[in-house]
Amino acid sequence: MEGASGLAPKSARMNRLRIATWNVNGIRARQQQFLDWVNEERPDVVCLQEIKASPEQVPAALCEMGDMAAYWCYWHGGGKGYSGVGLHVAREAVPERPAFEHPDFDYEYRIATVRLHRNIVVASVYVPNGGKDFPAKMRFLEALEAWVGASLAAGDQLVVCGDLNVAHREIDLHPKERKPTVIGQLPEERALFDRILGLGMVDVARALHPEDDGMFSWWAPWRNMRQRNIGWRIDYVLASAALAEQAVSCGVQAAVGTSDHAPVAVEFALKPAPVEADPIAR
After folding, report:
1. In the chain, what are the domain boundaries?
2. 3-12, 108-117, 180-189: which range is least confident on average?
3. Cα–Cα distance between 159 and 148 in angstroms, integer?
4. Catalytic residue from among 44, 106, 163, 203
5. Would residue 106 show up in a list of annotated catalytic residues for this protein?
6. Are 251 and 264 in contact (CB under 8 A)?
7. 100 to each of 2, 12, 123, 161, 193, how far by Cα in Å?
8. Which CATH fold would you assign to the domain 17-270?
9. pTM for this structure?
10. Alpha helices (H) in the chain, listed in sequence order
């Protein structure tokens, strides 16, 4: 049963974690769509990419008014009309403001992280598309691989969310979009994606829907590509293996918004943890 705020009671939320990620392609252009989506979905954690705004340029309503006041907000953008990520954590789930950070390899405001209870670290990531500087894209993916490896080695449970700008397998592309020499589908990009998964990460949506060949998250903004579902799957939720085993749903919300990307939402039914190991769950 939902509480008056629309959020589930705390006792029900302690063992449930809902995370949603969306490349909004400009937060100012989609302010109301974003608010409507959050108020409808009520994720515990919201990851955004391509906000295209500095913190000073983000409309105050997105954190200071209405239902978004129920979230701890972190905006990480440079305001140059591209890039930038956001992270928002429900205050009902995390009563005290959590630590928002970005790793040393961050450039162009492309990654932000937050640490939750149970050593769960969530990252909002926007990988360069590589069209203007493919080596920079590969360096970013290599640095992401190293960070994931170090985080897992330190005992963190990871959830890496966002626009990774790689169609991992052929099934992640509509047949009409399969072009093996195009950036986003290149063997070296896919090999790096494989290496990240090989560290102990799981592509949650694909694990739950292994044969869904129409599960796309990005569509070129012409010729009704979205309406015809001729697209790419380049927006992901990657979770460390033990956490991925607790995922009960993960899917693309293709009907949401006017960005060229659709949101992806995941829900984990977390196994109960001892109180001393989970100080927030009390």
Report:
1. 17-270
2. 3-12
3. 10
4. 163
5. no
6. yes
7. 28, 25, 10, 15, 25
8. Deoxyribonuclease I; Chain A (3.60.10)
9. 0.91
10. 10-13, 31-41, 61-64, 134-153, 187-198, 204-208, 241-244
